[in-house]
Design a protein that fits this description.
- The chain is an alpha/beta fold.
- It has three domains: 7-218, Class II aldolase/adducin N-terminal domain (L-fuculose-1-phosphate Aldolase, 3-Layer(aba) Sandwich), CATH 3.40.225.10; 242-401, 3-Layer(aba) Sandwich (L-fuculose-1-phosphate Aldolase); 412-650, NAD(P)-binding Rossmann-like Domain (Rossmann fold).
- A seven-stranded mixed β-sheet has the order 3-2-1-4-7-6-5, sandwiched between helices.
- Helix 10 (242-256) packs parallel to helix 19 (465-479) and helix 19 packs parallel to helix 20 (503-528).
Length: 658
């Protein structure tokens, strides 16, 4: 590991707190040190208060901030003297500790201080850094971990046996530090937890962390336990997995009690790990550090027996909950990590971001396990210690305070014709409401429509059935299944009277407006059947179904046929709990087919201005793509949970329709 310190960059940060921000970000940039909000840092600064009195303030990382992106506002200023006084108490409950931290901040708007604030305060150094370095955890999570730590560091660090984070850890560290630290002490190793470094200035504390972690890396490398090779995984070819993944997702979602996304990782590293002969022994001990349990659960599911996993989780809860100081409410028993020889590593989350965080953590866990095994054998903490963190008062409080998730959290929607107009508006509306969205379009820019973990844009000609099957396979491997289908792709061809309508043109329109949607419905059915909240389809029809116009025979007939197809599907699929409804827009002018020239031409044809033409309906209102998307998302949601086979116009009122 190399120091990332750069004098020119450091010069851009002012004062002690500014440099605290700089080196915190340097730590956060190194994923083998901290992941997704892990680790914490602090600096002690002497300040003058409003009364003119000088006091020492601990600026410690606040809850909810990530070291990689932290700013000065992410540090909570707490009065040092009070923290020192608290450290001398015989006991202090977690709720009491949080209250004391919050009520002794000098800025009421600052985030809640880290639960390790007292620990940072009692370390007698200006700057303190704490990480969960992979290399250090790989060493501590072995049968003879403490002995190995002493081999690596000698008396340069104080070694702390594992104890629950919070007040008890702070007190133990204070006792050990007072008894064992000396002038040459530069760090502290917390067994099965992480490592601290400290120093008189930001650079020294940071570079001591780099040095300490590097020494652990070198120790592992010298024993062939750093880059641990794995055998080539068995190949399962290009077998379609979408039905199996969708079924697994439904079972996991049912166990959780709410929909979850499943993200598949089938790279060689994940497949090789999932295919190990000793997988049960090395993975069924526990996480690399207790903090991970909040994201990953204590154990991954091996294979696909979800029912057995949930039974085991309930036994785990029932064994340790009675030993807790206060009553505990069981969390959902569904796995968040699945290891399967064919699927590789699969991670679950209520959003794509959440599933990605789980994947990041478990990738590092795999490396830690492999290194510890190469060093003599991986050994995690006992289940009781992991339970205590999973059901920690502070974590339970966060769950109680958490607001309701977005309406479509954990669900997956697929939208065709998604690069513009109604399709694009549907993608945006569904993302806003928490869904993971797959957008299909023949346009290449569909891939870059959104830079969000919950969006997948695929170039797909929906008239090509093989491309449709491949798109569905990609969608399920990325997000786990399919809950909602919006059939929007279509063509509104040039006006042609019947006497000029050739068969080739007719078939081309039908191929996109009808045949493609038949293929999408047929191929999606098996996935929609597995949707945890039952599948939903919305078909984008047209006013022309009930009120066709001259010159639009191919368009009107194909949309009318699609309308009948949707009605038959509603009849056939109701037994599977799948509901299918149709919207009939008219005069939606903010789409790709309506250029300014065409609008001007059509308005002139009717003897109107463009604005008059846009509102030539009974309500004299303009219909936009967003308006249609709002209706479509409503039809996909719980309000219409008892409606299927409906046909709803969204046209401002049309005299021929009414």
């Amino acid at each position: 590991m190399k120091s990332r310190w750069n004098d020119e960059e450091a010069a851009r940060y002012e004062g002690d707190l500014g440099l605290r921000v700089y080196t915190s970000r340097l730590l956060g940039q190194e994923k083998s040190l901290v992941l997704h909000g892990g680790g914490n840092t602090s600096v002690k600064i002497r300040e003058r208060n409003l009364l003119g009195e000088e006091e020492d303030i601990l600026y410690v990382k606040g809850s909810g901030w990530d070291l990689e992106t932290i700013a000065e506002a992410g540090f909570s200023p707490v009065r040092m003297q009070h923290l020192i006084d608290l450290s001398r108490l015989p006991t202090l409950s977690d709720p009491q500790m949080v209250n004391e931290l919050r009520t002794h901040m000098t800025n009421a708007a600052a985030p809640t201080p880290s639960v390790e604030a007292i620990l940072h305060a009692i370390i007698p150094h200006k700057y303190v850094d704490h990480t969960h370095a992979d290399a250090v955890v790989s060493v501590t999570n072995t049968r003879d971990g403490e002995q190995r730590v002493r081999e690596i560091y000698g008396d340069d660090v104080v070694i702390i046996p594992y104890i629950m984070p919070g007040f008890d850890l702070a007190r133990l560290c204070a006792e050990r530090f007072a008894a064992e630290a000396h002038e040459g002490t530069i760090g502290m190793v917390l067994m099965n937890h992480g490592i601290f470094s400290f120093g008189p200035d930001a650079r020294t504390s940071y570079e001591r962390m780099i040095e300490l972690v590097s020494r652990a890396e070198e120790y592992l490398a010298a024993r062939d336990a750093w880059q641990v090779p794995q055998p080539a995984p068995q190949s399962y070819g290009e077998k379609a997995l979408r039905e199996e993944i969708a079924r697994l997702r439904r079972e996991i979602s049912e166990a959780a009690g709410f929909p979850l996304l499943l993200v598949s990782h089938r790279d060689s590293h994940c497949l090789a790990f999932a295919q190990r002969d000793d997988l049960e022994r090395i993975t069924q001990q526990g996480p690399a550090t207790p903090d991970h349990v909040i994201r990953t659960k204590r154990l991954p599911l091996l294979g696909r027996d979800v029912a057995a996993y949930t039974r085991t989780y309930r036994v785990y809860f029932e064994e340790y909950a009675p030993q807790a100081r206060e009553p505990k409410t069981m969390l959902d028993p569904a796995p968040r990590v699945i290891l399967d020889p064919e699927l590789g590593m699969v991670t679950a989350g209520r959003s794509a971001k959440e599933a990605a965080i789980v994947a990041d953590i478990y990738r590092h866990t795999m490396d830690i396990i492999l290194r510890a095994e190469a060093l003599g054998g991986y050994q995690a903490l006992p289940a009781k210690d992991i339970f205590d963190v999973e059901y920690w008062d502070l974590e339970q409080a966060k769950l109680r305070k958490a607001g309701s998730p977005p309406p479509f959290a954990g669900e997956i929607a697929l939208v065709t014709g998604a690069a513009s107009g109604i399709g694009k508006a549907c993608v945006e509306a569904l993302l806003e409401q928490g869904a993971a969205v797959v957008g299909l379009d023949i346009r290449a820019d569909i891939q870059d429509l959104h830079e969000k973990p919950g969006y997948l844009g695929l170039v797909c000609d929906v008239t090509d059935e093989q491309q449709v099957r491949e798109a569905l396979e990609s969608a399920v491997r990325r997000f786990g299944g399919l809950d909602m289908l919006v059939l929007n792709a279509g063509a509104f061809p040039d006006s042609r009277p019947i006497v000029e309508l050739d068969t080739t043109h007719w078939h081309k329109v039908f191929r996109l407006n009808l045949d493609a949607n038949l293929a999408l419905l047929r191929e999606s059915h098996v996935l929609l059947k597995q949707a945890p909240r039952k599948g939903r389809v919305v078909v984008v029809g047209s006013k022309n179904v009930v009120a066709p116009g001259p010159g639009a025979a191919a368009y009107s007939a194909s949309k009318a046929a699609l309308n009948q197809l949707a009605r038959v599907a509603a009849l056939e699929w109701a037994g599977d709990g799948i509901r299918i409804n149709t919207v009939h827009p008219d005069a939606v002018f903010d789409t790709g087919i309506w250029t300014e020239e065409i609008l001007a031409s059509r308005a002139h044809h009717y003897g109107m201005t463009v604005e008059q033409y846009k509102t030539k309906n009974l309500l004299k209102t303009e219909i936009t793509s967003q308006d249609v998307a709002v209706l479509i998302t409503a039809l996909l949601g719980p309000i219409f949970s008892k409606t299927t086979g409906a046909q709803i116009p969204i046209d401002g009122g049309h005299e021929r329709v009414v």
